Amino acid sequence: MPIEQADMAYVLKTPWLDDPSAAATVAEWHVSVGEAVSADEPIVDVHSGHIQATITAREDGVLRRSLLAADETAPPGTPIGIVASAAESIDELLDELNELDELDTPDAAADTPTVLPNRRATAHFAADRSGFVSAGGYEWPYDGGASFGGGQAPTPIDYFTAAFAACLSVSIGVQADIRDIHFDGVAVSAESWPKAGSVESIELTVELVGVDETDDRTLERIVETGEQTCHVAELIDEDVELSLSWTKRG
Q1: In 10 A of CB 71, how many CB atoms?
Q2: What class, spelled out in words, does domain 156-235 have in CATH?
Q3: What is the pLDDT of residues 102-148, one digit of tens each?
Q4: Do 84 and 2 contact (CB within 8 A), yes or no?
Q5: DSSP assignment, residue 217?
């Protein structure tokens, strides 16, 4: 598959501004990852010396990746973003870009920090009942489940269940560290019930791997304290404020 396109996905690249060897610097992103764009809409400004250019959307879609941050510089022809439909997989395109990056700059991945979500995420849901969540430099697919025309990807409840298990594993690890207890790892399995509708109960199973010589009562206290710290009532304040707004795009 050519690098320029995968289905409707396409790559944004730094243009030639001064001469074929002049590097371009990202001045400003007009669109955030996860936002929809229309054909010819400005996406990002780049400059080289006194010359500035605006890279626009070739077709309608969603900015799925920004590969170069503001004030970062790259040679002409460097991929700096990916636009695709909300439901389209861009994994194959990313693999191709990564292969090219490894050939050109083997250590680039080690030098480029991953963008963390910082408690911010955007969910995108398409007409075909598929969607993805983008959070910082990460992305996860989801759909509404078989009863809502999906069944090909995890549901929001699946991610809620997984997040609860992840939170508990971290909390137990912190409690063990506070008490100077060594362990090789913590495995937390979580299962939400019932299998449809609102969650009424969650079954949790914790496995402490490679734990040192610590009595069972202390370990039980660590697990119980971890669960209390990571309970939904502790994660979300009882009086949490919710702000809701909406817009429409043609």
Answers
A1: 9
A2: alpha beta
A3: 545 444 444 444 567 888 888 888 777 788 887 776 778 888 887 77
A4: no
A5: H
